[in-house]
Amino acid sequence: MTSRLDPDHSKAAANRSRKIPGSRRLALLLLIGGLLLGGCQCPGAGSFDRDQVIAEVREAMRQFEAQEKERSVDGLLSFLDPEFGMLQDGQRVGHAATVDQMKMSLPSLRSFEPRFDDIEIRALTEDLALTSMVFHDVITAGDGSVTRMWGPSTLLWRRSNDGKWRILFADSDHYPEPEDR
Model confidence over 142-155: pLDDT tens digits? Predict the structure, then answer.
């Protein structure tokens, strides 16, 4: 398994076109989010301060991005819900595999420069939020080689009992960044 933190991941990504096949999954997740917003009888889906939830999740995303820049394994792991799972480039990846990959990849990097663009945050309930964005990563490996990646990412955030927002599920696709970006 490779991740966007693994410079070898770009080899697999280079075999895909720039067309975003994950956009269908993103559209489906946003549709589900819209249905939840519109008529869900879910606990917590009633009256709540959507703007407050959005502000809290936006801040959690800012902190998550800062932990990525610092290459802080413990800091990043603190953002993963114990039930975390993801769909990464069409492969299901669980919590344990994600932890192992972070512990193996992050310390060996010289630098990791993430950037999140086109961020949209939907407050689904007072304890659930959906974010979609396009990430751009510049990863410098220990040997100095540089990998530039980009792709769509959708995150399902859940507020835990301690009040902290954590990522419950992620869906990300990775593509090589064009040289002209």
Answer: 999 999 999 999 99
